[in-house]
């Protein structure tokens, strides 16, 4: 017998998978009705084209007309026809009016791609708007800006005929030297999830599907195809999965990409626990799961595990081109194929691919989108130092400026790999500054390759601006977090020659700064997109206020970081051990009492702000109730600016948690002297932690502390509230046979464990199975479930004779009344045989 546990606070989901395995090659699945359908289908014989019908009905109408081969061909990418520059291409079915599905790389723009071309020597990449890196967007702490970012990409995707955009990339930043950190949002699940959800909604407003990537725990690039991320249950639930749940539910993303790596030894793209139990069973995700390129490692294991579409790069069709034959051989159920294709067709209908009212493809607004790229770069810029008010510069008082560095005269719009786009144009720092100042101001430049020359150029200028950089790319991590080459020496020499030096960082994340105590002005610009120079000039001269806040912690050196040595990073024998557990990012620094170089959430402005008068209501919280937090924010400086008040929550000592976690944030723009009261709501889920004993979310009774201020280390305001009568974790356990045979009856039991603090009254426990399966209650539950007790309900599940080999989903749900009402659901896998 197999028993697995799984749950969510106040809404527990339990899903059981039943797998049918072929016992004899002589077993032939029933012939699909669609195989006998004529290929001559008239336009008026396509009822699925009626947009007035519900999507579910349209899907079933179309699915019934597809042959087995046509179904399976919807499940994998193939080599693209000449002239198609999307990286992924799934052929349509012309006889049924199904158009091709085109999928493009992102997430920093719409990438025109030649990868896998049948004519690789004759492929010219087309341009797109190059937006600032995702980490720059994250530094804005602004979901509205994230929505606009996704919407702009959606507009350009529609202009290119793209249906699915690979993005946003939303893995948690765990390793400081991670090669794709610039593509990810942050080290915090709350910030990542809410920004990714807004990004996805913006993209999909243009009838282009977001594909959230890379699910899950793909937090480092080194040996990503062959390593496993080994993580405990609580850490996975509290750190690495919440952002996905927010983006998949609040963001209503249409698709998810499973990653190349393994989690706890199981490949992501055939991980039924992550895909079918959690993503689909618990969160109710009904979209498409597509593979990262080369992430598919099997046919049967992947389709059973929940992979809907496979993309295998230059080996197009590998694995999933076998599916039709596997069905004919009785090794894969056609019902399972239907389930996967049903999701693909649902996405197509959601994108209005068959409808006249799909968002039209319009020419790209190059100038407007460039201006938006500049806005993102400005709002994501983080002012890390501004001693002696070096910034903003007064253009009217300057006679000369020196712009120094490898990227002084060359724009550095983004990192390397699949996210890199060919921009419509670029503006270098040198050009941006020259265009901003009058002709009377002399602007000189040098690469800095000759340190003596660089010092000389700096000495002769009123102000020196050093553009420092660190290149990052997909497929490899950085060896360290140092600035490459002799850039540290360059900064030191330039500053020694001219104390009025501004250092600008074009990096994808944290770097070591041995010179930081000497320089007076330091501006983090990340990878700023095609409008690099114009955004920089606007910030330097005060046309824009740097309103960004760090979405990642900057350590003094790599040795401070949580994951700087094996087996945490790099891996040992193919395994990354997440033994730091919940202590990731600022949680690590707070728990270990380490003073970072710059903390999470930090960022200066050209003005100053005061935070006061914190109020928390109610002060006594009953289960399921939200908490409101408000504070007064005042601009105490001479200029208009944007404040980003942040709220963190400390848990009772009775539960093992880092000192604080981010639970709310807001942005407010204030004129000089202006004051505004900012109110934020903490949902009931903000108080929860993962109870590993119950395999469920739980709320601990006790004292919670609300911290509010400007960053994770600048929290002058504190208030407490009490959580009473917590309902506690109500775990569901489903027990089922290891194997069941078609045409037989399986005994399945569901156990509701009352590990909370209240009696559960009138519990109702139900079990649902696939269509055509019979579920009969064998033993009803009692009237109550006492404290620290459990109730077991038995069912008889009749497996249809024609059920083909597959993993099938049984979902148990429980609800109860009493002092606190609640519900639960759970999914597990059950193997079945014919």
Q: What brief labels describe this structure?
A:
6-stranded mixed β-sheet, alpha/beta, disordered N terminus, 17 helices, 834 residues, 27% strand
Give the arrangement of secondary structure elements:
Blueprint (H helix, E strand, L loop, with lengths): L1 E5 L7 E8 L33 H9 L4 H6 L14 E3 L10 E5 L28 H6 L3 H17 L4 E6 L19 H16 L4 E7 L12 E3 L2 H8 L1 H8 L5 E4 L3 E2 L2 E2 L4 H11 L5 E4 L8 H6 L17 H6 L5 H17 L15 H15 L1 E5 L13 E5 L24 H8 L5 E5 L4 H9 L3 E8 L16 H11 L3 E7 L13 E4 L7 H9 L34 E3 L8 H7 L16 E9 L2 E2 L5 E9 L5 E3 L2 E5 L10 E5 L2 E3 L4 E8 L5 E4 L4 E4 L2 E8 L7 E7 L6 E7 L2 E3 L3 E10 L5 E9 L5 E6 L4 E2 L4 E9 L8 E11 L4 E12 L1
Parallel strand pairs: 2-39, 4-5, 5-6, 6-8, 7-9, 7-18, 8-11, 13-14, 13-15, 15-16, 16-17, 20-30, 32-39
Antiparallel strand pairs: 1-31, 2-38, 3-4, 9-10, 12-17, 19-21, 21-26, 22-25, 23-24, 23-29, 27-28, 29-30, 31-33, 33-37, 34-36, 34-38, 35-37, 38-39
Provide an overview of this structure.
This protein has 834 residues and is α/β, with parallel strands linked by helices. 20% of the residues lie in helices and 27% in strands. The chain has 17 helices and 39 strands. The strands form 9 sheets. Strands 2, 32, 34, 36, 38 and 39 form a 6-stranded mixed sheet that branches. Strand 38 and strand 39 form a beta hairpin. Helix 4 runs parallel beside helix 5 and helix 5 (189-204) runs parallel beside helix 7.
Indicate the low-confidence ranges by residue numbers: 1-11, 21-41, 116-120
Total number of helical segments? Answer: 17
Q: How much strand content do the residues show?
A: 25-35%
Sheet/helix structural class:
alpha/beta
Instruction: Give the tally of β-strands.
Output: 39
Mean pLDDT: 90
The major pleated sheet works out as: 6 strands, mixed
Oligomer: single chain
Distance between the termini: 19 Å
Principal-axis shape: globular
Nearest-angstrom radius of gyration? 28 Å
| Helix percent band | 10-25%
């Amino acid at each position: 017998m197999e028993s697995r546990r799984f749950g969510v606070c106040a809404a527990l989901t339990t899903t059981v998978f039943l797998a049918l395995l072929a016992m004899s090659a002589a077993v032939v699945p029933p012939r699909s009705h669609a195989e006998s359908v004529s290929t001559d289908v008239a336009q008026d014989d396509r009822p699925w084209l009626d947009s007035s019908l519900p999507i579910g009905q349209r899907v079933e109408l179309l699915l019934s007309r597809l042959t087995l081969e046509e179904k399976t061909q919807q499940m994998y990418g193939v080599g693209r026809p000449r002239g198609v520059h999307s990286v992924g291409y799934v052929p349509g079915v012309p006889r049924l009016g199904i158009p091709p599905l085109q999928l493009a790389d992102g997430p920093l723009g719409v990438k025109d791609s030649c990868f896998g071309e049948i004519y690789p020597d004759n492929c010219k990449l087309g341009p797109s708007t190059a937006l600032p890196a995702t980490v720059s967007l994250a530094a804005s702490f602004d979901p509205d800006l994230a929505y606009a970012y996704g919407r702009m990409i959606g507009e350009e995707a529609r202009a290119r005929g793209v249906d699915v955009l690979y993005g946003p990339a939303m893995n948690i930043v765990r390793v400081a030297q991670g090669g794709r950190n610039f593509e990810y949002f942050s080290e915090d699940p709350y910030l990542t999830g809410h920004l990714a959800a807004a990004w996805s909604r913006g993209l999909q407003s243009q009838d282009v599907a977001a594909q959230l990537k890379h699910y899950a725990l793909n937090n480092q690039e080194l040996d990503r195809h062959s390593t496993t991320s080994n993580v405990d249950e609580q850490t996975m639930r509290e750190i690495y999965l919440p952002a996905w749940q927010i983006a998949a539910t609040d963001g209503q993303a249409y698709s998810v990409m499973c990653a190349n790596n393994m989690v706890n030894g199981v490949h992501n793209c055939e991980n039924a626990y992550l895909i079918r139990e959690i993503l689909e069973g618990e969160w109710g995700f009904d979209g498409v799961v597509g593979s990262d390129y080369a992430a598919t490692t099997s046919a049967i294991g992947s389709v059973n595990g929940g992979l809907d579409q496979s993309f295998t790069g230059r080996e197009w069709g590998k694995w999933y081109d076998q599916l039709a034959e596997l069905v004919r051989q009785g090794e894969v159920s056609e019902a399972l194929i239907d389930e996967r294709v049903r999701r693909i067709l649902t996405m197509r209908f959601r994108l209005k691919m068959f409808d006249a009212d799909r968002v039209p493809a319009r020419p790209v607004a190059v100038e407007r989108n460039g201006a938006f790229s500049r806005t993102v770069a400005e709002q994501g810029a983080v002012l890390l130092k501004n001693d002696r008010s070096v910034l903003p510069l007064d253009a009217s008082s300057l006679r000369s400026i020196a712009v120094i560095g490898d990227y002084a005269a060359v724009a550095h719009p983004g990192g390397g790999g699949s996210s890199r786009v060919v921009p419509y144009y670029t503006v270098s720092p040198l050009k941006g500054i020259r265009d901003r100042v009058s002709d009377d101001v002399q602007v000189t430049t040098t690469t800095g390759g000759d340190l003596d020359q660089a010092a000389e150029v700096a000495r002769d200028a009123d102000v020196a601006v050093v553009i420092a950089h660190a290149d990052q790319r997909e497929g490899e991590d950085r060896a360290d977090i140092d600035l490459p080459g002799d850039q540290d020496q360059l900064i030191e020499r330039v500053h020694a020659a001219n104390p009025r030096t501004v250092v600008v960082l074009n990096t994808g994340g944290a770097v070591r700064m041995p010179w930081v105590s000497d320089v007076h002005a330091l501006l983090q610009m990340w990878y700023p997109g095609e409008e690099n120079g114009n955004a920089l000039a606007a910030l330097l001269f005060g046309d824009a206020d740097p309103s960004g806040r760090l979405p990642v912690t900057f350590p003094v050196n790599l040795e401070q970081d949580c994951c700087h040595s094996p087996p945490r990073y790099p891996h040992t024998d193919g395994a990354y051990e997440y033994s730091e557990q919940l202590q990731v990012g600022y949680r690590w620094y707070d728990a270990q009492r380490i003073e970072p170089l710059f903390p999470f959430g930090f960022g200066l402005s050209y003005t100053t702000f005061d935070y006061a008068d914190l109020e928390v209501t109610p002060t006594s919280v009953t289960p399921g109730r939200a908490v409101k937090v408000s504070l007064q924010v005042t601009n105490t400086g001479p200029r208009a600016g944007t404040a980003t008040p942040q709220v963190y929550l400390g848990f009772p000592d009775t539960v093992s948690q880092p000192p604080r976690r981010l639970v709310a944030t807001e942005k407010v723009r204030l004129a000089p002297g202006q004051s505004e009261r900012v109110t934020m709501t903490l949902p009931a889920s903000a108080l929860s932690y993962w109870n590993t004993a119950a395999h469920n979310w739980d709320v601990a009774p006790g004292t919670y502390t609300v911290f509010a201020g400007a960053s994770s280390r600048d929290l002058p305001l504190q208030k407490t509230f009490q959580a009473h009568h917590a309902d506690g974790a109500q775990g569901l356990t489903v027990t089922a046979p290891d194997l069941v045979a078609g045409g037989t009856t399986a005994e399945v039991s569901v156990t509701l464990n009352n590990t909370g603090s209240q009696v559960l009254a009138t519990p109702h426990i139900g079990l649902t199975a696939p269509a055509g399966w019979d579920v009969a209650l064998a033993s009803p539950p009692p009237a109550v479930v006492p404290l620290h007790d459990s109730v077991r309900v038995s069912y008889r599940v009749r497996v249809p004779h024609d059920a083909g080999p597959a993993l099938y989903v049984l979902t148990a749900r429980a609800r109860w009344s009493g002092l606190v009402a609640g519900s639960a659901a759970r999914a597990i896998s059950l193997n079945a045989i014919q």
